[in-house]
UniProtKB/TrEMBL annotation:
One of its GO terms (molecular function) is carbohydrate transmembrane transporter activity. Transmembrane segments: none annotated. This is Maltoporin. Residues 1-23 form the signal peptide. Belongs to the porin LamB (TC 1.B.3) family. Coiled coil: none annotated.
Length: 415
């Protein structure tokens, strides 16, 4: 049935494509991203002993994952087109589809429109509304988007303030805990130039529930987060330093990761407290043939109910190019998660070697076709009994350890 639905959707798209040239559609831009392959394991406990991993290697109850040879399949593709214009004013529309492991599970993941040139004094400003990936910030190597408010919303962005660009949005996500409708007020100032190669970004998010009445008196219904980013580029690479401080429902919030639990908006449960975290990541170009991607991150989530955790992650990916199209990468990553209530500490160590064929030299060259092998060690002392907001408990049987060898192949590409 899903395959039939996909075929029908593709058929409709093919039928409508020729009509685009007859309508007032101009400046069509195509874009997308994909990662696809197989990961095999020597551990019979994974995926019912089928021989493949269906999850990523990470420290239990942690965030993100060192992604080289350690990511699940996904593709997304879409287009943006100008659909109306009158002088300098015009509107465009973005439509974006995506799918995971099952080819038939295709869904619309972005659909939004923007009006440009609507204000004579602000030629670069735009008004937008719809479902979109909204101004996300990420650390690519550990597959974490640490400032991700993507959802349905409306806003004005790129308003020239003289010293930077202002952005204000009213987003409408759902609570991670109980699914209740939320309001997220997102205010940012970006592109504050420090010099020719460095800039600052500041942002404030405030969320609250649509219906804030709960029978329990200790349920969290709102929260705030302050974010500050410093980006620096130089002849030998680039670096981004990010600091975030969150309270209550946004303690540890606004972060999405393939390997971690979804705890972006923690309303509907007892979650009063605070968190602070730091991400420092970038790439170092030693010379034309040798580059290093690196990441270090720390978060302290301190909750009133003693159910927070301290998370630490550090790793690097040196890469050497043998030719313009062939390279070898070695990724080493370490991660720990310590329970606030003393239930224990989980950790993970991973090393991956990958032989790659890619479109040019450097750590950002894509497409990249890879053959890889990984050795990992994983130790668990505590868990939340399978619940995202469960109480941290020491393992009944004590510390459990898993040594694992995985190997496989994949492609990563964007356009």
């Amino acid at each position: 049935m899903k395959q039939k639905m996909l075929a029908k959707a593709v058929g409709i798209a093919l039928v409508l494509a020729p009509l685009a040239s007859q309508a007032a559609v101009e400046n069509i831009t195509y874009f997308g991203y994909a990662k696809w392959g197989n990961i095999y394991t020597d551990n019979d406990d994974h995926n019912n002993g089928k021989g493949e991993r269906n999850d990523v290697i990470r420290a239990s109850e942690g965030y993100g994952n060192y992604r080289l040879g350690n990511e699940l399949n996904w593709w997304e593709a879409g287009l943006k087109a100008d659909v109306w214009q009158n002088g300098d004013a015009y509107f465009d529309t973005t439509l974006y589809l995506g799918s995971g492991e099952s080819w038939g599970d295709v869904s619309i993941i972005q659909m939004w429109s923007a009006g440009h040139g609507l204000f004579a004094s602000q030629p670069d400003a735009k008004v937008w509304a719809g479902e979109r990936f909204y101004r996300r910030h990420e650390v690519h190597m550990i597959d974490i988007k640490y400032w991700d408010t993507s959802s349905t919303g409306i806003g004005i962005e790129d308003w020239d303030l003289g010293f930077g660009n202002g952005h204000i949005a009213w987003m409408a996500p759902n609570s991670s805990a109980d699914g209740r409708s939320l309001h997220n007020i997102d205010a940012r100032i970006s592109d504050i130039a420090i010099n020719d190669t460095a800039d600052l970004t500041f942002g404030l998010n405030y969320i609250f529930t649509q219906n804030s009445s709960y029978e329990e008196s200790d349920i969290t219904t709102s929260g705030a987060m302050l974010s500050a980013l410093y980006r620096q580029a130089w002849d030998y690479g680039s670096n981004t330093l990010a600091f975030q401080y969150g309270t209550d429902a946004l303690a540890g919030g606004l972060m999405s990761a393939e390997g971690g639990s979804n705890r972006k908006y923690s309303t509907g449960v007892e979650h009063d407290g605070y968190s602070w975290r730091v991400f420092n990541s970038g790439d170092l170009n030693v010379n034309e043939d040798f580059q290093v991607m690196y990441s270090i991150a720390y978060q302290d989530k301190n909750l009133d109910n003693n159910d927070g955790e301290k998370w630490f992650s550090v790793g690097a990916r040196p890469q050497y190019s043998w030719t313009d199209y062939m390279a070898t990468a070695l990724e080493v990553g370490y991660e720990t998660v310590e329970a606030q209530n003393g239930a224990g500490t989980n950790d993970m160590y991973k090393v991956t070697v990958a032989q790659m064929f890619q479109a040019g030299k450097g750590v950002w060259a894509r497409p990249s076709l890879r053959i890889f092998a990984t050795y990992s060690e994983k130790n668990d002392e505590w868990n939340r009994d399978g619940k995202t907001y469960g109480t941290a408990m020491s393992n009944v049987s004590g510390k459990t350890s898993v040594d694992e060898v995985t190997f496989g192949f994949n492609v990563e590409t964007w356009w």
